[in-house]
Amino acid sequence: MKKPNIVSSLVKGALLTLLLTAPLLALMALVQQVLGVPFIPFDVFDLLTRILPGSVITTGIDSMVGVITALGLSVADTAKLAEQAMAVGLILALAMIGGAVFFVWQRAERSSLRAGLIYGLIVGVLLAVVSATRQGASFIDGLWVFLALGIWGLGLAWLQRRLAQPSTEAASAERLNRRQFIVRVGGAAALITVAGAGVSAALGGRREALAAAAEGQRWSAANALPNADAAVRVVDGTRPEYTPLEQYYRIDINLTPPVIEEADWRLRVEGLVDTPKEYTLEELRTYEPVHQFITMACISNPVGGELTSTTRWTGVPLKRLLGEWGLQDTATHLRISSADGFFEYVATEDIENDERIMLAYAWDGVPLRARHGFPLRVYIPDLYGMKQPKWIESIEAVDAWAPGYWVQRTWDRTAQIRATSVIDTVATNMMLGAAQAGDMAIPIGGVAHAGARGISKVEVKVDDGAWQQAELREPMSGLTWVLWRFEWPFEPGEHTFTVRCTDGNDETQITERRPPHPSGATGLNNEQVML
Ligand SMILES: Nc1nc2c(c(=O)[nH]1)N[C@H]1C(S)=C(S)[C@@H](COP(=O)(O)O)O[C@H]1N2
Ligand SMILES: [Mo]
């Protein structure tokens, strides 16, 4: 049999592998939805997230947020989806390389199924090891990954055999036969991919709906916000003052959040304490609960971005628990560790001095959602989310500070939330139909936030005019953002509105434009409008 050239084997291998791998992944996604076994692309992506240098990950997150924003999509809704798409794309690319290698290796002959099986199982061992690094991975999970790759290898060999150069002179009938075969395989691949992905997405949606239904009644469904009677009204078009849970931004290092069963879970307290402890969630709930209205922000949030949300947190002040442990004199910090390998440090002195630092188990009156850290997360006022572990498993009292997960990856040591202000809306629809300018006011509105420092002033500038003070709506608490409102006397034409804020310490926000890395984005938000 004539040996086909390498390039043609490479190309053929890569393309056929794509036809094989796409439907296989769709089926794996389906099996994951039904049985909860690993989905290889997500496990590989999550592992890469943890082992790649921080600078690579940071650039990746920044460009992703940039692309999503440039496309006019919501970062809060799209970020995880984009990561998932990248994970699948990455695996498809790697599979194509793997398939091309197989086709080149086997190009001299019709591959035996056994060669394909062995090839697949070798890759399978590697990936099973990757999947085993996942939190809570079981032997069955590893076996599943191993077997799935065996099937993949068999598929490769089958395709290669079917399409290998015929041993006789290439008869035209045979060539036609092969072309039909490729068309049929391609059609079947497309069908299975679309159907598998569709059904698994539907199952995922159903599971979410069931989880939401089981979560019980939200606090906000039956109660008015504490500032419901505030004199300054919200401008139409401003983001929701109190974020619905399904719109709450999500940022973490997992494509599949750790799934923790309440019955299996304990909060372990260890290290430099006289009385090591274990708390069940039920025990934590028996302490007099504390409720706080809180705005969180991610340090990756660009100026004017959506990686910030507000809800009502319920939990127990960490100080209350600290008193039960017999903290030793040498203990200066607590290392808080999570089920996903994430961790951070908090000074015991801060905990002693600030009862707002809390371990939280409920948001908006219902248990934390899986993606937001069930069963337990910490709240530390004034700091970006990167300092505040979700899915907490253990707390260790230690005698020194050390860099936490993102600090190790070159982000700010303290990560204090920057003062920032945003124009959400120039309510131009209010003036439609009204013709003349001058005596008509157009409301402009948005939010301003400076962690736990509060907001003392928001100012708006129209074009190159002077800074003019906006009205501040009374916030839900000293820990939330502040909604503002500015009545602008309408003038037709093109205008640029710019906003700035001053925090509770009388510090005006930094106007120099800086990217989120390493200490949080700075710069002024503006809005250009043609009227
Ligand atoms: N265990 C764990 N906790 C974590 C993270 C994480 O990746 N793992 N990400 C942090 C970051 S960077 C942010 S911004 C917040 C986001 O919380 P949310 O997804 O509930 O909005 O969680 C923080 N806590
Ligand atoms: Mo974050």
Shape: globular
Instruction: Give the biggest beta sheet.
Output: 5 strands, mixed
- What oligomeric arrangement do these chains adopt? single chain
DSSP strand (E) fraction? 15-25%
User: Radius of gyration, Cα only, in angstroms?
Assistant: 28 Å
Distance between the ends:
74 Å
Based on secondary structure, the structural category is alpha+beta
Strand elements, count: 18
Taken in chain order, the helices and strands follow as: HHHHHHHHEEHEEHEEHEEEEHEEEEEEEE
Strand order of the largest sheet: 2-1-10-5-6
State the low-pLDDT regions, or none. Answer: none
| Tally of contiguous helical segments | 12
Report the average pLDDT across residues.
93
Instruction: Provide the helix percentage.
Output: 25-40%
Bound molecules: the ligand Nc1nc2c(c(=O)[nH]1)N[C@H]1C(S)=C(S)[C@@H](COP(=O)(O)O)O[C@H]1N2, molybdenum atom
